[in-house]
Amino acid sequence: MADISKEQVKHVAHLARLAVTDEEVEQLTEELGAIIHYAEQLNELDTDNVEPTTHVLDIKNVMRKDEPREWITQEEALKNAPDKKDGQFRVPSILE
């Protein structure tokens, strides 16, 4: 992969709506170039016999199974409400 150019940095900064100075463009060009060169080292690895994985760790879902169950009725939910109207909780207005 080719080195990143100052024009590319300026273009990406423009797309991200970032105002960058010429000094920052220079610094970002060097830093992003170093990151790209570091990532290119992965291309040197032999991955021919490596099976693809979705996650590097053996993770299992620890959440309970989603099963339907009995729940309280609307009347039970509203029986202790300080103010209710038409089957709903009534709260003070916060908008003027």
UniProtKB/TrEMBL annotation:
Segments of skewed composition (Basic and acidic residues): 74-88
Domain of life: Bacteria
Enzyme Commission number: 6.3.5.-
Reactions mediated catalytically: L-glutamyl-tRNA(Gln) + L-glutamine + ATP + H2O = L-glutaminyl-tRNA(Gln) + L-glutamate + ADP + phosphate + H(+); L-aspartyl-tRNA(Asn) + L-glutamine + ATP + H2O = L-asparaginyl-tRNA(Asn) + L-glutamate + ADP + phosphate + 2 H(+)
SUPFAM superfamilies: Glu-tRNAGln amidotransferase C subunit
Chain spans, region Disordered: 74-96
Enzyme superclass (EC): ligase
InterPro entries xrefs: Asp/Glu-ADT_sf_sub_c (IPR036113), GatC (IPR003837)
Role of this protein: Allows the formation of correctly charged Asn-tRNA(Asn) or Gln-tRNA(Gln) through the transamidation of misacylated Asp-tRNA(Asn) or Glu-tRNA(Gln) in organisms which lack either or both of asparaginyl-tRNA or glutaminyl-tRNA synthetases. The reaction takes place in the presence of glutamine and ATP through an activated phospho-Asp-tRNA(Asn) or phospho-Glu-tRNA(Gln).
Self-association state and partner proteins as the record states: Heterotrimer of A, B and C subunits.
Family that this chain belongs to: Belongs to the GatC family.
The protein's name: Aspartyl/glutamyl-tRNA(Asn/Gln) amidotransferase subunit C
Lineage start: Bacteria, Bacillati, Bacillota, Bacilli, Bacillales
